[in-house]
């Protein structure tokens, strides 16, 4: 089902090819009328060459998985052409966390809601400090052995936690994770561009990055530095959103407005939307396997998919101009072998 207009990359050190743009249905988990427009979003995605669809048991406490399962059945698409992923959370689902007992039960419930025999990638949706990591990884391998998932990954794990996963797998002859799902966008760069670089180099780790538009803050709707009217209504993640707004715009409004309006002017010069520019910039990074986008209306997906055409416009000159606007490139780690201290004063 590959499309000539879409770009595809291998997901980490695996043979699984994914579209560089993917669709996540978090936003549909709290909207009672979401199932129909979520289907329309999926249809637009598939027509545009998107093959990767992400959800989680925690999105609406299973509602998002049910919607995704119903949409797949409604569309009648070939399951072999779709890459479906879900995530298991250590919180809000009982006291067993990511234990062997809980994961065994959880995967069956996920598959039942999705109406599928398997998922392509199963994530650990945050680290569970109360369960031995070796116990969790053992059951993830058992799930793969039983063909209920083909690959596994992590979400929001630290570099140290991911490295420990690989060490445990190497010591036990187990299948290691192939992917980390982390936040990455123009305002949040440290994780992907600095912290995870050794993991990319050593293990070939893939990334399925979330919030490439920073929850809409980079879409152009916040260029005056204010939250649009109605944005916080009926939003179950209002506290999380306000924290991000305060961090990236509210606490530095004058500087943020200058950056955002500069991005808008550059986008207009390139003949694209500000959202497309921000998405294309994320996808341009070769360490990004796919960028997960959401939507609250089907027409948003048209704009998102259009970002693919913008990638070719990101010349070295344009990327330099973006860097000048952002001013937040992470400093590389110090190489103490080449460090030269200041000479002593005489």
TrEMBL record:
Entry-linked Gene3D superfamilies: NADP-dependent oxidoreductase domain (3.20.20.100)
Keywords annotated in UniProt: NADP, Oxidoreductase
Residues of the signal peptide: none
Pfam families linked: Aldo_ket_red
Domain NADP-dependent oxidoreductase residue range list: 26-325
Highest taxon above the source species: Eukaryota
GO MF annotations, alphabetized: oxidoreductase activity
Family, similarity comment: Belongs to the shaker potassium channel beta subunit family.
Record protein name field: NADP-dependent oxidoreductase domain-containing protein
Source organism of the structure: Blepharisma stoltei
Lineage, opening ranks: Eukaryota, Sar, Alveolata, Ciliophora, Postciliodesmatophora
